[in-house]
Amino acid sequence: MSTQFYNSLTKKKETFKPIEAGKVKLYTCGPTVYDMAHIGNFRAFMFEDLLKRYLLLKGFEINHIMNITDVDDKTIKRSFNENIPIVELTKKYTDRFFEDLKVLKILPANIYPNATDHIPAMVRMIENLVKKNNAYITDDGSVYFAIDSYPDYGQLINLDFSQQKRTNRVSADEYTKDKPQDFVLWKSWKEEDGDVSWESPWGKGRPGWHIECSAMSTEYLGNHFDIHCGGVDNLFPHHENEIAQTVCATGELFVNIWMHCEYLTVERGKMSKSEGNNFSISDLVEKDFSGETLRYILLNTHYRSKLSFTMDKKHEAVQVVQRITDLFDRLLSINKTVENDGSLPEDYLQFEGALDNDLDTPGALAVFFEWVRKTNIKLDSGSLQEKEAVTGLNFLDKVNSIFDLIQEKIEIPKEILDLVNVRQKARQNNDWILSDKLRDKIYDLGWNVEDTLTGQKCKPLKS
After folding, report:
1. Are residues 141 and 201 in the same domain?
2. Which end of the chain is more exposed for a tag (fewer CB within 10 A), N or C?
3. Residue 8 falls within a domain, yes or no?
4. Are 268 and 311 in contact (CB under 8 A)?
């Protein structure tokens, strides 16, 4: 089966065929670094990681660009409210973002361009749009894109202009689709911008949000590339505006396939700080979610279906991750004398077929879990053949290259293990004072011991 992805632009699944054989140019909208990214943001980043990993598995060479929005309305407002330089603010949250990527085992992009490092490219693109009469300059020195100059404006969201309320223009980065307006490319400096400004042919100011991605994507991937991704919240106005301004500036087709992942809600409701459910990755790590459990929760639902994130999903995810890790260890421990020729169980064809069908992760995991069940039965009965152990490990390797759910073993130092064993004996003797002292000593050595129904669990302290 050929690999098919749902194209948000054409509203149908299409067979994926890269512009250049064997190579994929991929652009994904990165974080706006005015705050910590939350679990809803990471649903999109995880979907993009899934897409990238599957394309790598299929043998493609990928050039992946993910931008960092370090200047826009939100970053300037947050910088002003906290009375700290915008550079200091955005560096803080950029660093946190990269830490979160590591926790979630998300593969790094080839390049993470910052918007503020690409102002000249944005100015050049705006100049080109003004020259072509796709943009105009206002009295205050701002520049706006004239949406009437692009006949296909609204194609991404099937916008019917006859049913819309038109107003003149909008200077905000974000607005609703019920009022399509000429959007800002360059914002003239205002007092509330503080020292955030650059010189331009139209005077001092800063770029609008939408032009940032157009300039950076074409800078690194060329005028025409394969795939552009984001969340459904990016459909309008961001991606709609990207298409309009880029096509008008270059005169070429911009992107072949647009892919968007659906919203994530928390505890079956909208995320908000006031509700206390606007969870960052570090918040969830504090609640004992591992990177593997979060990966499973985020990938177990198809990317084009809404996902409700609830705390009770952790229990299932922990069990799944443990079951997969245990099977990997069991297969690895079998003495294998047969040669590994790279062959795979028949189940793999179904697994791959599901992912070929627009990254159907629920379907792929269903195939995989059925294989896990059958393999465990054979292991328990002693009927698993050596060859099956080899092909099984090959299958697990393929699955893990995409889902990355197998936990790495934590080596506990002998000194800690000895203390844990002494503490266990103290607890058996009801010597709670000694038990507490040993727990404190273990903690001082950088480890945490927990008492569970199945015994003591020892983990390194989070750094």
Report:
1. yes
2. C
3. no
4. no
| Confidence band, pLDDT 50/70/90 cuts, at residue 274 | low
| Vertex 60 angle, CA 55 and 62, to 5° | 85
Say yes or no: 249 and 374 in one domain: no
Peptide bond into 413 cis (omega under 30): no
Cα dist from 17 to 2, 156, 188, 290, whole Å: 9, 21, 42, 36
Which residues in 377-409 are b (16+ Cβ under 10 Å) and which e? Answer: eebeeeebeeebbbbbbbbbebbeebbbbbbee
DSSP 8-state symbol, 381: H
Looking at residues 227-238, what average pLDDT do you find?
96
Give me the helices (H) in 192-290, please.
209-221, 240-250, 281-286
Which range marks the domain in which residue 238 is found?
A: 16-265
**Domain identity same for 155 and 89:** yes
Could you report the per-residue pLDDT of 161-193, keeping only the tens digit for each? 666 555 567 777 776 655 678 999 999 999 989
Domain co-membership, 347 together with 249: no
For 206-218, write each residue's pLDDT tens digit. 999 999 999 999 9
Instruction: List pLDDT tens digits, range 297-315.
Output: 999 999 999 999 999 999 9
Which 3 state secondary structure label does DSSP give 258? strand
* Residue 287 domain-assigned (yes or no): no
